[in-house]
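Duplicate of #3305? Posting structure anyway:
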């Protein structure tokens, strides 16, 4: 079982990455294979709606999208983290999920039945608006979205501050346990 954690923040080593790393550690304790990648260090252009991916499952734009797509394709779960930027997920993440969804839906719903989970960090406000955008992405791709006992959101601004949000840390630890259980058993119970 493989889990890909995708950091949508435009800076590395920030709060979103820290929250994802907490989940990564949780998954690894359960013996699951993980990889964490950061969009801050990758280049993903916007979808050009050229339809050249139809029937091919590849994109003609030569950037890092192809490598990310390959990692997602071989993963059983995709955990996305985003900071809130003006009430929305990051623009790098928006570019990726728009391109990914267009390609996936044109090619037989490639993400179907993978587990999808999102965690969100904001300095003050906008957590749920950003979270709901990502849930819409999972749902339209027919992915399985695990519920949790609270929304997986945290509040922090400067790098590292998320560690002071102990409720967020505990929530994502709990969620990573649920996802591990789902992956291992095919059901939460
Ligand atoms: C361009 C930009 C827009 C932001 N917009 C919001 C916002 O709408 N609401 C909010 O609460 N915080 C906002 N923030 C703060 C970030 O969400 C916050 O600093 C977060 O911890 C950054 O995550 P990171 O450390 O993973 O980069 C914004 C930050 C940036 C750089």
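Output from current build:
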């Amino acid at each position: 079982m493989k889990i890909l954690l995708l950091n949508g923040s435009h800076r590395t080593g920030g709060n979103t990455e820290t929250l994802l790393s907490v989940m990564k550690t949780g998954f690894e304790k359960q013996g699951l294979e993980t990889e964490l990648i950061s969009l801050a260090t990758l280049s993903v252009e916007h979808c050009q709606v050229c339809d050249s991916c139809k029937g091919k499952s590849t994109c003609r734009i030569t950037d890092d999208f192809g490598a990310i797509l390959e990692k997602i394709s071989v993963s059983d779960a995709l955990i996305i983290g985003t900071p809130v930027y003006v009430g929305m997920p990051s623009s790098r993440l928006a570019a990726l999920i728009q391109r990914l969804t267009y390609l996936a839906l044109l090619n037989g719903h490639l993400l179907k039945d993978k587990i999808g989970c999102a965690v969100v960090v904001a300095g003050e406000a906008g957590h749920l608006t950003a979270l709901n955008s990502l849930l819409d992405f999972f749902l339209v791709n027919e992915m399985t979205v695990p519920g949790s006992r609270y929304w997986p959101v945290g509040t922090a601004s400067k790098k590292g501050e998320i560690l002071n949000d102990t409720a967020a840390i505990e929530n994502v630890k709990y969620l990573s346990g649920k996802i591990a259980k789902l992956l291992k058993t095919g059901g939460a119970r």
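Confirmed duplicate; merging threads. Residues 2-185 form a domain with the Rossmann fold fold (CATH 3.40.50.360). The radius of gyration is 16 Å.
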